[in-house]
Structure formats: structure tokens, C-alpha cells
Design goal:
By secondary structure, the chain is of the alpha+beta class. The chain has 17 helices and 25 strands. It binds zinc ion. Zinc ion (ZN) binds near residues 271, 273, 355, 356 and 359.
């Protein structure tokens, strides 16, 4: 689908495989054992949540299980899918509610389970599941036409998500009702253009049209719609992205939303669901349009915003992350966030709300699924990450392998192996940040496009260069970037663990809650722009705070920086003064994705 390789042929290797192994041993891999809303869900005959949580979880857990080829995880995924299919009603309705409840059931989860089943079919080739998906979408079409179900709330705002399972069905059945259903959803769904003005100043109220997760999902609407229904692609996504970025952008490529758009501010929150979903939108946008800006945007999220907001063991996560995160502590009084509660930036099982608990698991596996793209004339590679894939080009078996420590090192060795001579084009994207690129020492201009006859086994090494540099941020602040990584001043941490039970949901190590307190100075600014990169060995956690695989030494000076008014665990957006107090100190910055407490956006100070 969307020209992405069949996922069964893709295998992550190196640090990326390790990251998936951590995920499998952590919350996403064990959620059906510890979390009532998945363990006892109505989707499988239990009495807990029967809407988005099980489909969200399976959307990440299925690719995780199959990519790692883990027998136990595959058996558990299989049990859920079989239980869901077994409960499908005679007329095709697949969601866990009675006939009488359908009119009030928000069909967003119907779209979502459709995505999950389509993905399951791609991994397993199951005809039974494919037929079940067909019947469920036909049923949805029939009921929408008769007015027995309607789009409202999430379904109305996420109508385009249904285009993903519909694309899957269209490629197999080519039946007109599939397109008719797509047109109907598009017509009855929200047109986000009507709300653009509301994205420019935070509303301080919870509404669906500035809801951060809706908006990042929305960015793919035109691409999936043109793919399925045709029509001229006008690149609306880029225009909409730029508006969101101008008024709500962060230093790590996300948008602020705590939980609706929150404006420019390094202490505003960004919901984890929005990181996972924005990555997925970027993946589809790059696959469908080939516009490499989406892959650049994807990398920034994947290597910075994503790992920062999930614990190293992947058992706990934040609901909201801040770019300048000096503590993750419950607010004793009124929450700092606009519409999210006082626990939202703690690490835990389900801080504030459980959507991210179920949904974050899709981020790493789907990134891997999107790495290899089939174009008409050959193969396009999204990002240089350790993985290999097998495909067939003009009857020849082709294996493409990437050996790399990227993004911790700026290069990759590619190996292409064919079992017969075959001509095709291999396209390797050169990221926009690269100052220069060379293959086996020979300079490359523009993107690396290799069109030739491939025969047997061949390897070559791509090297990219960059130097650590400042990137300007609003309020006259700066961040340091090097390659696709953003660097932060790490703040030493002290964890306080909380084990308890609330509303029948147990928090118990390792799925407990944590507050994180700062134990070192955070009030700094940049003294100059002299930086030194050090490559390090790291440990078995790819994004480790104690053993980062790359660091940037910088010269920082203390400044006067207050807390946000009334909150002694949140740094104010800007320092009180930009004048240095004390001499410059040499301090090692670490990747944003490694730093659980950090200062990222800082001023350039005036010398003492
Ligand atoms: Zn969420």
C-alpha cells in the first residue's frame, strides 16, 4: 500500500532492532497483561473500554510482534484479532456495540480497526481477515447511506483515516462502492480550512478543531484522498504545516498542544499521540508525494521528540513533553497546561489520560515500515537506518541493506544484492541539513540517484557532513543542532516512584508513575558558538541519558532565569536577563531524545 514495501520483507537491525526489543519487553509489548482497558476490553468480550484503545494498541503491537518474529507476541496479537473477527455481527458491523447503540457509537474506532485489520492482512495474508474488513466497510457504507449511523465528533474530524483501509480494499477489489464510501466520508467530514484562523492564538478551551492529534492526522488528508479518488494534488499539507508551525511550532518539529494548540512557547506541552501520529502522516506524505521535506520532518520527530517523552525501558511515558523541561512534577494546585491536568508531564502508566498509553507503540514499527519505497523505476529509501529489505524487481530478487549508526553517526553503508542482472534506480535521499555528501569519497550533488544494472553483491558508503550550529527560535532564543539531532543541556535527575491503584487500574513497578526532580543547575545561556562533537560508544539503550552515543561540548554561562509565574517547577519562557553571571563553563550537551530533564532553547548571553 502507498508503494511502501510489504512489511513482512523488512527487518530492522542494529540499534533499531534493539529499540524494538526494548518496546516488546516494555509497556506496549505487555499492555494486554497489565492494563484493564486492553486486557478486559469489550473488543474481546470483556467489560472495559470498547472503542479506540484496543485498536490503537494493536496498530503498534502487530507490526512489533511480526517484525521481531516473536512467537509469543504473535500468538497474543492473533488471539485479539481472532476474538474481534469472531464477534463481527452478521451484517458486517465489527465494533463492540449492540444494534441499538450504533447511532451513538463514534465510528472513529471503526476506521481505526480497519487500519489495524489491513495491516494484519499485510503481515499474514489472511483471507479471513480481509473478507471481514470488506464486510465491515460495506456495512458502514450501507448504514451511512441509510442515515442509521452518522459522522460526529472524532469520526467527523478523522474521516480521512478510513481512507487507509479503503485504499487497501480498493487495490484488491476495485469496486465502486469503495470510492462512493470515501466520497461520502469526505463530504460529511470536516474541512479544516474553515478553522485556520483559530490556529493562530491559543483558545484556552478544549475543541475538536484545534485538537493537536486531529490536526497532525489531518495533514495527510489530501495525499490519501488524491491517491484513492484522484484529483490534482495541490500540496495543501505543506501550507497547513507552515501555518501550524508559525503559530505553534517547537524546536523538535512538533506542534504545541496541551491538549489543543497552545501557541509558541518552550514550556507548553506536546501530547505523545501527536508525535506518533505526526510521524505517520509524514511517512505517508513522503511515500505518496516523494517530497523529501516530509522525510526531513519525520527524522526530526523520530530522533528527538519521540525518545525524549518515553522512558528508557519504554514502560512509562509522558502525556505532554516540554522543550525546556526542568522537572516532571505534579502541580499541587491549578495545572500549568491549558486544558490538561496536573499530572500530564509526569512519566507513568497513563498520566492524565490513557490514549497515548495505547497509541505510542505504533511510532517505531511504522517508521521501520516506511523505510523502503517502491517507485515505478526502482527503490527509494526514506531514511538511513539499520534495516534490510527484500523485494523483486523485473523478476530478480533484490536485497537492500543499510548498515549505520545514524543518527548518532552521519553515514551509512549500503549493500545491494541481486540474484540476476537487473536494471533499476536506487534513490537515496540526502537530508536537507547535510553540508556535503560523498559516496566512497566522491562528492554527490543533490540527491543520490543511482540508475544502472545491478548484478550480484555491491556495497558503497555514503558520508554526510555537518557542524554543530545555532538554529534561531522565537523570543530571540537558540538551539544547537547537529545532523538531524537537537542538543540539550542535561539536568541531573532524581526520581520519585509512585505505586497505587486508581479506579481499578494498578500502578506497580515497572508500570508505575514517576516524578522527576532537577538536581543540577539549569539557568544557562550560550556564551559563544564554539562546539566540539564527541562520538561515544553508548550502552544497550540507543537514546540513553547516562551514556549518549554522541555529545556536543559547548560554552555556557549562568543567567538569571525565573520560574513561570506561580509555578516553581516550570522555567519561564525567556530568562529575566541575558547578561552572563559568572564565567563561561564548558558543558557537554546531549541529544534532546536522551535528556529527560533538559534546557534546549537558550539565549546567547551578553558577556560579564
Ligand atoms: Zn494521547
Amino acid at each position: 500500500m502507498y508503494n511502501i514495501f510489504n512489511p513482512t520483507t523488512i527487518k530492522p537491525t542494529g540499534w533499531l532492532r534493539r529499540q524494538l526489543e526494548i518496546q516488546l519487553a516494555g509497556l506496549n509489548g505487555q499492555l494486554d497483561r497489565v492494563w484493564p482497558d486492553v486486557r478486559d476490553s469489550a473488543w474481546i468480550g470483556g467489560d472495559r473500554e470498547g472503542w479506540e484503545r484496543v485498536p490503537y494498541w494493536l496498530d503498534g503491537f502487530i507490526p512489533l510482534a511480526y517484525m521481531l518474529d516473536d512467537k509469543d507476541a504473535i500468538a497474543r496479537a492473533e488471539r485479539y484479532i481472532q476474538a474481534i473477527l469472531a464477534r463481527q455481527q452478521k451484517d458486517g458491523w465489527i465494533c463492540p456495540c449492540s444494534k441499538e447503540e450504533r447511532a451513538k457509537y463514534d465510528v472513529w474506532s471503526h476506521f481505526l480497526i480497519g487500519k489495524v485489520i489491513a495491516q494484519y492482512c499485510e503481515f499474514t495474508g489472511s483471507i479471513e481477515a480481509e473478507e471481514s474488513l470488506y464486510k465491515s466497510m460495506r456495512c458502514l457504507y450501507r448504514l451511512l447511506k441509510k442515515g442509521e449511523v452518522k459522522l460526529f465528533d472524532w469520526g467527523k474530524y478523522r474521516w480521512f483515516e478510513c481512507f487507509i483501509p479503503l485504499q487497501f480494499l480498493w487495490e484488491r477489489y476495485h469496486e465502486d462502492w469503495i470510492l462512493s464510501l470515501a466520497r461520502k466520508l469526505k463530504k460529511e467530514g470536516i474541512d479544516y480550512h474553515d478553522y485556520i484562523d483559530t490556529w493562530k492564538t491559543p483558545l484556552n478551551k478544549w475543541v475538536l478543531y484545534t485538537h493537536i492529534v486531529n490536526l497532525v492526522m489531518m495533514l495527510k488528508y489530501e495525499a490519501v484522498s488524491c491517491k484513492l479518488l484522484g484529483g490534482k494534488y495541490k500540496n495543501d499539507a505543506d501550507k497547513l504545516w507552515k501555518i501550524l508551525e508559525k503559530y505553534n511550532g517547537t524546536a523538535v518539529g512538533s506542534f504545541t498542544g496541551d491538549e489543543c494548540l497552545s501557541g509558541i512557547g518552550n514550556n507548553r506541552g506536546t501530547e505523545l499521540c501527536s508525535i506518533a501520529e505526526l510521524m505517520y502522516s509524514c511517512e505517508l506524505l513522503y511515500a505518496i508525494t516523494g517530497d523529501k521535506i516530509w522525510a526531513d520532518r519525520l527524522e526530526k520527530l523520530a530522533f528527538n521528540a519521540l525518545p525524549a517523552t518515553i522512558s528508557e525501558d519504554m514502560w512509562t511515558h509522558q502525556y505532554l513533553q516540554m522543550v525546556n523541561q526542568i522537572a516532571c512534577v505534579r502541580f499541587p494546585g491549578r495545572s500549568f497546561f491549558r486544558t490538561n491536568g496536573s499530572e500530564s508531564h509526569m512519566f507513568g502508566l497513563e498520566p492524565h489520560f490513557g490514549c497515548c498509553t495505547a497509541n505510542f507503540g505504533q511510532a517505531w514499527p511504522k517508521l521501520i515500515e516506511s523505510l523502503f519505497i517502491r517507485d515505478e523505476d526502482g527503490i527509494r529509501l526514506t531514511s538511513m537506518l539499520p534495516a534490510e529489505a527484500v523485494t523483486e524487481v523485473n523478476g530478480a530478487r533484490v536485497v537492500v541493506r543499510m548498515d549505520t549508526e545514524y543518527p548518532f553517526r552521519l553515514g551509512c553503508t549500503y549493500t545491494v544484492e541481486t540474484d540476476a542482472p537487473v536494471t533499476f534506480t536506487l534513490k537515496i535521499r540526502i537530508p536537507a541539513w547535510a553540508k556535503s555528501a560523498s559516496i566512497d569519497g566522491k562528492a554527490v550533488e543533490g540527491d543520490c540517484v543511482i540508475e544502472k544494472e545491478w548484478n550480484g553483491k555491491e556495497s558503497f558508503t555514503l558520508t554526510l557532513t555537518d557542524t554543530p550550529h545555532f538554529v534561531e527560535r522565537p523570543h530571540n532564543l537558540h538551539v544547537v543542532e547537529y545532523g538531524p539531532l537537537v542538543f540539550s543541556l542535561p539536568i541531573e535527575t532524581e526520581y520519585k516512584m509512585y505505586e497505587y491503584e486508581r479506579k481499578g487500574v494498578e500502578r506497580k513497578f515497572p508500570y508505575c508513575d514517576y516524578e522527576i526532580y532537577p538536581k543540577s543547575e539549569w539557568r544557562y545561556g550560550f556564551a559563544n558558538d564554539t562546539f566540539t562533537v564527541t562520538e561515544k560508544e553508548g550502552n544497550d539503550v540507543p537514546f540513553s541519558m547516562s551514556a549518549p552515543r554522541v555529545t556536543v561540548k559547548a560554552n555556557l554561562s549562568r543567567v538569571n532565569w525565573d520560574y513561570a509565574d506561580g509555578y516553581n517547577t516550570v522555567a519561564d519562557k525567556v530568562p529575566r536577563s541575558r547578561n552572563a553571571i559568572g564565567d563561561a563553563e564548558e558543558i557537554e550537551l546531549i541529544p534532546y531524545g536522551c535528556a529527560k530533564l533538559r534546557m534546549t532553547e537558550m539565549p546567547i548571553v551578553k558577556k560579564k
